[in-house]
From TrEMBL:
GO molecular function list: pyruvate dehydrogenase (acetyl-transferring) activity
Assembly and interaction partners: Heterodimer of an alpha and a beta chain.
Enzyme Commission number(s): 1.2.4.1
Cofactor requirements of the protein: thiamine diphosphate
GO biological process, one term: pyruvate decarboxylation to acetyl-CoA
Enzyme category, top tier: oxidoreductase
Keywords per UniProt: Oxidoreductase, Pyruvate, Thiamine pyrophosphate
Record domain Dehydrogenase E1 component: where: 23-319
Organism of derivation: Pseudooceanicola lipolyticus
Protein name per its UniProtKB record: Pyruvate dehydrogenase E1 component subunit alpha
Keyword Oxidoreductase: yes
Catalytic activity: N(6)-[(R)-lipoyl]-L-lysyl-[protein] + pyruvate + H(+) = N(6)-[(R)-S(8)-acetyldihydrolipoyl]-L-lysyl-[protein] + CO2
Gene: pdhA
Amino acid sequence: MAARRTTKKSNVSADELLDHYRDMLLIRRFEEKAGQLYGMGLIGGFCHLYIGQEAVVVGLEAAADEGDKRVTSYRDHGHMLACGMDPKGVMAELTGREGGYSKGKGGSMHMFSKEKHFYGGHGIVGAQVPIGAGLAFSDKYKGDDRVTFTYFGDGAANQGQVAETYNMAQLWELPVIFVIENNQYAMGTSVKRATKSPDFWERGAAYGIKGESVDGMDVLAVKEAGEKAVAHCRAGKGPYILEVMTYRYRGHSMSDPAKYRTREEVQKMREERDPIENIRSLLLTGKHATEEQLKEIDKEIKDVVNASADFARESPEPGLDELWTDIYADEIPQEVN
Ligand SMILES: Cc1ncc(C[n+]2csc(CCOP(=O)(O)OP(=O)(O)O)c2C)c(N)n1
Ligand SMILES: [Mg+2]
């Protein structure tokens, strides 16, 4: 077998860089396509795109092992793709079709996969944080050697239920990684306007929870921090906080007038910090890949994304009988004594 080439910067193999490149590009192109379908009226309701934040979830998934769990907010398409859920099922759900992960009845914010240990998709800001601790509690209770990645935003980090969850998680030494995706805005409110203590990870100190801040535009840095957090949790040392500094390029959701920041600010981030461009240039300057190879990968990804959109368009809408399935009880009692 040929020796694995490594980058000059670190001991990362070319194969690994290519994997990260592919995984981030899949999310980027998928989200761009979702934006197009939304514009065409094929996706209704809320739709929050993840463009710009790809390195967060790709880096952390690279640090995860089989059976580890994840739960996140409504900005969830990237998390689903990164943990291996089928782009066709995700796109069909976005368009409200039968072939979607929730049979077209949930939409963008409501998808689950038991197989991939993806527990949603939650529209209520911060609601997934105690759920993540609960998932970790179940692993600890059952003696499973698993870790739960609990993702939430800078806005959510200011909520009371997050503080309560930190306390319980540390008290019970739960194997949960709290991932704060600090994209600097909560809808139209910047971090500066929302909190006096903007270093969110430091808040763990009040409970004795270890943590750190990491550059979320650098997939390798995210992966490294993720591995450290995973090792901490798996060793039974309790929770860990990772504040991942990132940026979203698109509006909060598809209906965002974006008056709270300048075009120049977004442009500067795209030009100087883009996570995909960073890996692309590492691959090219380190001579780990040629322009042609990268073009070929781009084409493969486009094909996957186009196939997901075709599948979504061809899948029928769910039948009316679906109104009566997947509700809390299969049988509704007729009499209550
Ligand atoms: C409990 C609750 N309050 C308010 C809202 C409305 N809301 C939806 S997203 C959001 C901002 C959250 O920002 P952040 O946690 O930073 O996540 P991001 O959207 O940046 O990923 C708000 C206030 C909500 N969905 N739930
Ligand atoms: Mg935010």
